Amino acid sequence: MSDHPTDTPPPPARLACGRHTWKEVAHLLADLPCALAGFLYAVVTVALGAGLAVTVIGLPLLALGLSGARGMARSERARARGLLGVHVDAPSRLPRGDGLFAWVWSRLKDPVGWRSQLYGFIRLPWGVVAFTVTLVSLFVLWPVLPFVARGLANVDRAMVRGLLSPSDELERRIAELESDRGVVVDTAAADLRRIERDLHDGAQARLVALAMGLGLAKEKLLDDPEAAAAMVDEAHGEVKLALQELRDLARGIHPAVLTDRGLDAALSSVAARCTVPVKVSVDLAERPAEAIEGIAYFTVSELLQNVSKHARARAASVEVWRAEDRLMLQVRDDGVGGARLDGGGAGAGGGGGTGMAGLAERLGAVDGVFVVDSPEGGPTVVRAELPWRDRTPPPAGARR
């Protein structure tokens, strides 16, 4: 999940002018030139685009103006953030579209662009008022300047939040999902590269050597049967090793025990391979969706692997349960602690690599939560949440 900064509320206004008051005054004095530029831009682009709408270039010009209004809104958000402490999320980027028509149409129906133009229209009269009252207060109403500046600045804050913020919660969620999609794509690409490397360096190389060995054994079959038998026996051993490597690789992609028997059996199998005793408790009345189940499995698997390598623990535990619409995971060890989300420390997920950060990104990409509590000296407790999604029943007649 992405974390956005919250607004920085100024302290209560007092008779003495403080740092926040001067920042508000600076913002209000800059309102007039900024409002004038925004008003002229809005009037020219909308009037020109609408006036030429009957021609071929009219609508593209209007779309271009709306796209530029987003850029002006970005600078206004930055000004409000720096001087007024107002943090407004940036709206999601518009799709490029295939061809000119798709590009123009996506801009013409963009609510963010139209609200940015509306902001430019209504800012001019307000900019004149804010500039005039602030200037007069600086020289005539000095004792009450902090209160006047605060009242005027609050109007500016409301306008920025109301007109320059994303359209609604859905718009903000789209922006988050666009960011998460990049994480998912990068993770999938890394997994594919790992599988390709493991196949090339492991099972594939072993099978090539096996084929060559069997070819030599075939040539010696008539001339030297004993040597041929020895080579076939050696090839048989190579086949067993290749099969084991393929099983290990398949387990790394998606273990058969998880598909057949669910999280309880799969996590028990992972715990059995851990170098410290692990107590597994899975309290689920039903199984979640395959994708969620797989993420839960690999999250616990990586955490237990790091317990084995880095935690120096004597015991660990894994708990899995459902809480309303969330799948809850907790991995605990009594090791030396100090695990951090940046990959440091020696608790579950630590060890100086990027495992913790990678797990947090993977869970965040599916609207999950990843929390690490690992003080120096231990214990380390890692909690994770995943959205619960019901398992899709197999189609009628499908093999289970």
Using brief descriptors, characterize the structure shown.
400 residues, alpha+beta, Single alpha-helices involved in coiled-coils or other helix-helix interfaces, Heat Shock Protein 90, 5-stranded mixed beta sheet, 5 strands, 62% helix
Report on the structure:
The mean pLDDT is 80. Helix 1 runs antiparallel to helix 2, helix 2 runs antiparallel to helix 5 and helix 6 runs antiparallel to helix 7. The protein has eleven helices and five strands. It folds into three domains: 149 residues, no CATH class; 77 residues, Single alpha-helices involved in coiled-coils or other helix-helix interfaces (Up-down Bundle); 132 residues, Histidine kinase-like ATPase, C-terminal domain (Heat Shock Protein 90, 2-Layer Sandwich), CATH 3.30.565. Strand 4 and strand 5 form a beta hairpin. The chain has a five-stranded mixed sheet with strand order 1-2-3-5-4. The protein has 400 residues and is α+β, with helices and mostly antiparallel strands.
The number of helical elements comes to 11
Element string (H = helix, E = strand): HHHHHHHHHEHEEHEE
Instruction: Kindly state the percentage of residues in helix.
Output: 55-70%
End-to-end separation = 35 Å
Strand % is: 5-15%
What multimeric state do the chains show?
single chain
Quickly count the domains. Answer: 3
Largest sheet geometry = 5 strands, mixed
Q: Indicate the mean pLDDT.
A: 80
Please state the structural category.
alpha+beta
Radius of gyration, CA atoms, in whole angstroms: 32 Å
| Strand arrangement across the biggest beta sheet | 1-2-3-5-4
Low-confidence stretches: none
Shape: elongated
According to DSSP, the number of beta strands is 5
